[in-house]
C-alpha cells in the first residue's frame, strides 16, 4: 500500500508517533515513514533535468502544431476558435487555450 502525505501531514503523523514511543509497532512504523519520506524527497538532479527537458520538448511540439494550424487556417481564410484550433492541431483544449494570444494577432 502506498500513502502520499504532504509536509504538514507528515509532521502531524511524526508528532503522534513521538508521543507513543513505548509501543514497538509504533516505533517500526515511525522508522518506515522516515525512510520513505527521505527517499521520496531525494529526487536526483539527473531526473529533474530529464523532466524539465521532456516538458520543454512537449511544449515546443504543441507550439509548432498550433502555429502551423493557425497559419494554414489564415491561408484558407478560416475563422478559428480555441475549440477548432485544438481539434485541428491535435492538442487538448487547455493547451490550445494557452496559445489564445496567437489567434488574436
Précis, in short:
By secondary structure, this protein is mostly helical.
Q: What does the model show?
A:
Helix 1 (7-19) runs antiparallel to helix 2 and helix 3 packs across helix 4 (82-89). 8% of the residues are buried. The mean pLDDT is 84. Helices cover 75% and strands 0% of the residues. By secondary structure, it is mainly alpha-helical. It is elongated, with a radius of gyration of 24 Å. The chain is built from 6 helices and no strands.
Topology record:
Elements: H1 7-19, H2 24-40, H3 45-75, H4 82-89, H5 93-98, H6 100-103
Helix pairs in contact: 1-2, 3-4
Q: What is the helical fraction, as a range of percent?
A: over 70%
Largest sheet: none
Low-confidence stretches: none
The structure class reads mainly alpha
Give me the strand/helix succession: HHHHHH
The general outline is: elongated
Number of helices: 6
Q: What amount of the residues lies in strands? A: under 5%
In angstroms, what separates the terminal alpha carbons?
A: 51 Å
The rounded Rg comes to: 24 Å
Structure summary, number of beta strands: 0
Arithmetic mean pLDDT: 84
Descriptive key words:
mainly alpha
Amino acid at each position: 500500500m502506498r500513502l502520499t502525505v504532504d509536509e504538514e501531514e507528515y509532521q502531524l503523523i511524526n508528532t503522534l508517533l513521538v508521543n507513543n514511543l513505548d509501543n514497538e509497532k509504533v516505533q517500526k512504523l515511525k522508522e518506515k515513514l522516515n525512510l520513505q519520506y527521505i527517499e521520496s524527497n531525494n529526487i536526483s538532479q539527473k531526473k529533474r533535468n530529464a523532466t524539465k527537458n521532456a516538458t520543454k520538448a512537449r511544449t515546443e511540439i504543441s507550439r509548432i502544431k498550433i502555429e502551423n494550424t493557425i497559419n494554414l487556417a489564415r491561408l484558407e481564410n478560416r475563422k478559428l476558435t480555441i475549440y477548432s484550433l485544438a481539434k485541428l492541431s491535435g492538442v487538448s483544449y487547455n493547451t490550445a487555450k494557452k496559445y489564445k494570444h496567437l489567434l488574436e494577432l
